[in-house]
């Protein structure tokens, strides 16, 4: 049994009844470990390998505690690197089954150094055991010789000088096999005391011997008592081991003092033993607490419901939770050696399950988006093929149908979205602009329509100035008339509509500002609450709002394009124009609210960034 293992197996020194049976407290027979020093911090595997190679070069076998620490630290860093690489692979679209860890040269170097150190430790252990066997033979021979000399007072007096030499030789001999240590010491102590009891030398010499032994033991006792103030309990315990080794090599004291001296030494040892035991119990408690924290993180990740997730936003939110759990895991200390690997495997399996499912979702969405991409490309190509057509009615109907189909197709990869939309709208705009240019006979009607719509704008402005008497029914009546009026000259369309929109918006702000304001205030309040709770989702929320904002702009553009060529001559045409204008008004209102929400989120993000600076 090595010194480290024996101390762990019997951390508390066992008391002995009295010095006349001075069986030593069980301690390690090997050379005591060096005093505990501050544990170095290893941040990289290269640092750990460098230290292992240094221990290998020393050829002393190193300290088992340090070797265990180096192995634990190396594989903690190694597993963290592998987990990060595996996570990145899965998030990039790979599957968990396809991922394979690359051969790590540092791990090979670490294993080689560890194997060499273990081989050297085995050699040293074998040599130490052989040496202990030789020491045992020498000590047994000394016991037999003292036994022969402790026959009569005359023999004791005659062999006193030889007895003193044997005591000196005993102290020089090193450790013996642990299973023989206590028995050997008891036998030695028995015959030494018998020799002293038979000794008939002058009393002064004998008293002098007792006095020197008493002084030596009191010195050791004082050192043991001083260890109670030692801050490092492990170092104090190791020092106590050495003091016990020295104590048992000191000869006996006067019989009347033996019990008193031993009890004092035993009491000092008990103080250190108790602190040492409490120290390791605290470590055990800490490991248990760490285990519970890690189990809680396992349960947290395992509890994530992966069925029914249908958006990137949901996956992003859950990914944040898993990454936060992984970051928290790294801050938790070790659990017990037996449980640490098991709980880590459980946590890794839970994380793998999450990222594998996420990768499958992204893979499926990617396939769906590619299908949508092909469908929209076909619409773009057909619209571009029709953009120069002069079959005005037929082509207009077909392009309107293409625009409707466009809205039914889902999202495409972001890098293609804007370019496809620009091509599609450009083709539609080119056709409808050409169509409008060819219908010059409509210009007179369009000018009349222009005057009629200008009149409606003036009436709307008048209502806006007469807040006390204006009613929402009047506004809706004027809007209905506006929708019944046909097209105006193309060059005046945007300007006229802007004036109309401004007048109508002013009135709607008067009638509907409170409702819109309540919606905006509710949103602002929810944003502030999220910030107060520390939920850093503002960036993602802003991206979501921007996507919706762009989508609404596209819808408005489509409505405006369609209004340019829809016929309002028939009853059904009037109904369609009215419905489209209603949708357009609603879309514009929502666009304004979205703009205010985006401004709110942007302001909160800027405020948060300013605080961090």
Describe the structure.
There is one protein chain. By secondary structure, the protein is mostly helical. It has 19 helices and no strands. It starts with a helix and ends with a helix. Mean pLDDT is 80; it is low at 1-37 and 568-572.
How would you concisely characterize the structure shown here?
The chain is mostly helical and 613 residues long. The protein has 19 helices and no strands.
List the helices and strands and how they pair.
Layout (H helix, E strand, L loop, with lengths): L2 H7 L35 H14 L5 H28 L13 H45 L3 H6 L1 H13 L5 H21 L4 H24 L6 H15 L7 H48 L9 H20 L5 H50 L5 H17 L5 H25 L4 H23 L6 H13 L5 H43 L5 H28 L5 H42 L1
Provide keyphrases for this structure.
19 helices, single chain, 613 residues, disordered N terminus, mainly alpha, elongated
Oligomer state of the chains in this structure: single chain
Can you count the beta strands? Answer: 0
Helix content: over 70%
User: What gyration radius follows from the Cα positions, in whole Å?
Assistant: 46 Å
State the low-pLDDT regions, or none.
1-37, 568-572
* Largest sheet: number of strands, sense, barrel closure: none
The number of helical elements comes to: 19
Structural class of the secondary structure composition? mainly alpha
From N to C, what is the helix and strand string? HHHHHHHHHHHHHHHHHHH
Global morphology: elongated
N-to-C CA distance: 58 Å
Determine the mean pLDDT: 80
Strand content: under 5%
């Amino acid at each position: 049994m090595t010194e480290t293992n024996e101390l762990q197996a019997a951390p508390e020194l066992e008391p002995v009844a009295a010095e006349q049976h001075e069986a030593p407290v069980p301690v390690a027979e090997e050379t005591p470990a060096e005093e505990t020093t501050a544990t170095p911090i290893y941040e990289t595997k290269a640092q750990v390998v460098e230290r292992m190679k240094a221990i290998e070069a020393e050829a002393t076998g190193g300290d088992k505690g340090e070797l265990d620490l180096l192995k634990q630290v190396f594989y903690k860093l190694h597993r963290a690197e592998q987990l990060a690489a595996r996570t990145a692979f899965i998030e990039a679209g790979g599957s968990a089954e396809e991922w394979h860890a690359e051969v790590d040269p540092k791990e090979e170097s670490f294993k080689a150094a560890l194997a060499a150190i273990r081989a050297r430790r085995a050699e040293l252990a074998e040599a130490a055991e052989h040496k202990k066997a030789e020491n045992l033979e020498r000590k047994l021979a000394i016991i037999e010789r003292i036994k022969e000399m402790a026959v009569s007072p005359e023999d004791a007096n005659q062999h006193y000088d030889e007895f003193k030499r044997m005591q000196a030789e005993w102290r020089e001999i090193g450790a013996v096999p642990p299973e023989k240590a206590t028995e050997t010491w008891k036998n030695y102590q028995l015959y030494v005391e018998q020799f002293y009891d038979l000794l008939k030398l002058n009393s002064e010499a004998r008293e002098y011997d007792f006095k020197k032994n008493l002084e030596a033991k009191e010195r050791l006792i004082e050192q043991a008592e001083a260890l109670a103030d030692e801050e490092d309990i492990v170092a104090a315990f190791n020092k106590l081991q050495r003091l016990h080794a020295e104590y048992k090599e000191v000869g006996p004291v006067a019989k009347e003092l033996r019990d008193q001296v031993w009890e004092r030494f035993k009491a000092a040892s008990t103080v250190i033993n108790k602190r040492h035991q409490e120290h390791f119990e605290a470590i055990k408690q800490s490991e248990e607490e760490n285990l519970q924290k890690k189990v809680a993180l396992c349960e947290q990740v395992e509890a994530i419901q992966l069925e029914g997730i249908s958006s990137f936003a949901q996956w992003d939110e859950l990914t944040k939770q898993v990454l936060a759990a992984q970051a928290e895991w790294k801050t938790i200390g070790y659990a017990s050696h037996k449980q640490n690997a098991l709980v880590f495997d459980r946590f890794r399996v839970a994380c793998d399950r999450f990222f594998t499912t996420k990768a499958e979702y992204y893979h499926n969405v990617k396939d769906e988006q590619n299908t949508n991409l092909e469908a929209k490309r076909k619409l773009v190509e057909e619209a571009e093929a029709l953009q120069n057509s002069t079959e005005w009615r037929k082509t207009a109907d077909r392009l309107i149908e293409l625009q409707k189909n466009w809205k039914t197709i889902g999202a495409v990869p972001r890098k293609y979205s804007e370019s496809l939309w620009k091509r599609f709208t450009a083709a539609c705009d080119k056709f409808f602009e050409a169509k409008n240019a060819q219908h010059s006979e409509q210009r007179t009607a369009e000018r009349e329509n222009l005057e009629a719509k200008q009149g409606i704008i003036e009436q709307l402005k008048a209502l806006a100035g007469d807040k006390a008497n204006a009613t929402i029914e009047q506004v809706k009546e004027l809007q209905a008339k506006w929708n019944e009026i046909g097209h105006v000259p193309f060059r005046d369309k945007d300007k006229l509509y802007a004036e109309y929109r401004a007048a109508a918006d002013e009135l709607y702000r008067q009638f509907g500002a409170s409702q819109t304001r309540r919606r905006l205030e509710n949103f602002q309040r929810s944003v502030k609450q999220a910030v107060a709770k520390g939920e850093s989702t503002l960036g993602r929320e802003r991206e979501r709002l921007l996507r919706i904002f762009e989508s609404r702009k596209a819808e408005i553009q489509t409505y405006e394009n369609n209004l340019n060529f829809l016929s309002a001559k028939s009853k059904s045409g009037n109904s369609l124009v009215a419905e489209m204008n209603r949708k357009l008004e609603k879309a514009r209102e929502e666009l304004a609210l979205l703009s205010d929400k985006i401004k709110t989120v942007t302001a909160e993000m800027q405020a948060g960034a300013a605080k961090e600076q």
